[in-house]
């Protein structure tokens, strides 16, 4: 009997030990189930967040873009700017999850990161609800609202940044959405939840000539002095590239201000795929940007597949080239900032209720061109606004530099682009305006850019 | 030779642990609930200390580890009940006091337990009657119709019938052991009623529980304890296997004919299919254990209230959520120590009756812990029984204190007395 008792004891003890091991595997199982997406949402996550007063999101002057106010069962989120800043701030819903900074900065806003460890521990022991950190943005709420107003009723995006620091001053996308009711927009055909400024992949059209021009100035200085005869079309290996007009004989400067496709197609072919792609990469096209919100990296045909016709069309921003409005603003910013692209950023810093704070400092992202090339391009971009395709962007008393683009696309009328900066002598703002299917950049996008520059320089 | 200093030292450590829990509750939510939790920790400590002093005076040789272990478990239960809902805490504290009294009575009145073997058939009869009562006069609580409404409180006879079962089987098996062994030797002998009668009787009792009281967990414990005790007494695998087969057949029949058994199995197989309905409870339990991580959210910082019936069947999930994997394993380790101690007591005895009774009580306890924890963690279908000493419930707590008292009796009694 004794042996049987001993055996049974082993069986029971091993069984209980097995339960201990099994217990440790439950998180693995739950992780597997929740990843497959079939699971019911865990109410603990939302309940835990509701106990914490999420930090506020403030603009560069302290104006409130999002804040939490006490309500029954925790806190209620408020967005004083409504749809105007919706694509930056995002939304935060127990049911639909989060987006924008509400998502990417959640750990800071909830006080899980940053903040004082000692205060957090004290709150935990005493069961006090945690308090999140307030974050301060580089965005100017006034400019942001103004940009949103100009975009109202249109589809497109506006990005305004300080080229010397990379601070994003405004970043608007239209149509917008109400951050308190994201669910209403999920099935909307106009895709209001899409942040067009960061996630919209658009052919850049002629604004891309900034990059081609930079390559010509750096690598083919002789060609920049030559005159090219524009007959309105360029045939490469049996593929014909059409121009918007017959420009006749044009030098480099005229080709840029009049946005001559034939000349720039030729420049691309003369540069060759290698030199051209080197310059494109120097501007960061196709390179992921480390930003507080997800950004589409852009697209360019790789060297191996870059045949003649593709090279000629890529040189004028067509072909397979795709960029986001943020990246377009960085193109203008590179010229404005002596060839250096500053790392763009939205969050200037945060401060915890316990007094801790952090502030971000501007950093260089990449060197797109030499200061000399940037200076030469700046003159050309001033001419575009003074006497070229971008005249509608001109402002009295301020020298505006810019480049228009009218990007052909498979969805109808051209996308209208304008990128530029002002004041040209000492740039304080770089802008990119994109209007989907709005026609030519000079007539649709440039006037809007002018109003934004006017407001930004006030 | 009868120094109980070690016992008191261990009780003091247990007290520091429960006192910390009570203090944490008070600091998080200053108020009567927290103060009462501190008081409860103190009362349980004082009660066991008093017992220890009394036993020392009398010079009894009770095992030194049983009361520290059960005071740890009871203290954990009371603290968690105060955390979940102070109303449960007050009542559980009252039951813990009654339990300690019952433990003392057991050690006093049943110390010469050998004479109990003479009343084994009386125990069997009393057990059957007690199980039948709820079928006719019972009320249904938490899905099981196993309760009697006694006005002031609800009484669950099946918790006490567990004890009668062990009393009966220990007496019966020791008496008939020689006979069974002989029968086992004859390969071609027809099985007699004396051999198969108890098996069929137990099987019917388990089915009765299952069908009429809808109490799957208790049925499982009874039958498991029965097979465990038969195994220890006879080591006849053929009999055990027949029993297991019979049980599986009964379970299959129950699965096909009893709706709630089918539901339990369906929930176990895939709770996610009915995540907002019948699968909700087990999913919340798993989420709670997952949320606890390694160290837990801290006492009072989790969300155990998302689990329905968290204070009874699912209290282990709440412990895991707030004290983490380490806390959950800690509780399991304490149960393992208790089981180890129980078998140790069985193995130091020379007479078969004592061995079988101590091992039977221990197997009963170990099985119950395994079945309920496996249930709340989805290792087995959820069967709805209490976690001994921890879950809310007076019948269960008092019955387990009596069980512990019996282990103490067996641990000290001089052989053959």
UniProtKB/TrEMBL annotation, chain A:
BP GO annotations: cell wall organization
Domain of life of the native organism: Bacteria
Family annotation (Gene3D superfamilies): DD-peptidase/beta-lactamase superfamily (3.40.710.10), Penicillin-binding protein 2a (Domain 2) (3.90.1310.10)
Keywords (A to Z) from UniProt: Membrane, Transferase, Transmembrane, Transmembrane helix
Penicillin-binding protein transpeptidase domain span: 156-453
Residue span, Penicillin binding protein A dimerisation domain: 54-134
GO MF entries: penicillin binding; peptidoglycan L,D-transpeptidase activity; transferase activity
Transmembrane spans: 7-30
CC per GO annotation: plasma membrane
Protein name: Peptidoglycan glycosyltransferase
Organism: Desulfoscipio geothermicus DSM 3669
From TrEMBL, chain B:
Membrane topology summary: Multi-pass membrane protein
Pfam families: FTSW_RODA_SPOVE
UniProt keywords, alphabetically: Cell shape, Membrane, Transmembrane, Transmembrane helix
An MF annotation (GO) of this entry: lipid-linked peptidoglycan transporter activity
GO cellular component: a single term: plasma membrane
One GO term (biological process): cell division
Origin superkingdom: Bacteria
TM regions (residue ranges): 12-29, 35-55, 62-82, 94-114, 121-139, 159-175, 219-237, 244-261, 324-343, 355-377, 389-410
Subcellular location: Membrane
PANTHER family: CELL CYCLE PROTEIN (PTHR30474), PEPTIDOGLYCAN GLYCOSYLTRANSFERASE RODA (PTHR30474:SF3)
UniProt-recorded name of the protein: Cell elongation-specific peptidoglycan biosynthesis regulator RodA
Organism of this sequence: Desulfoscipio geothermicus DSM 3669
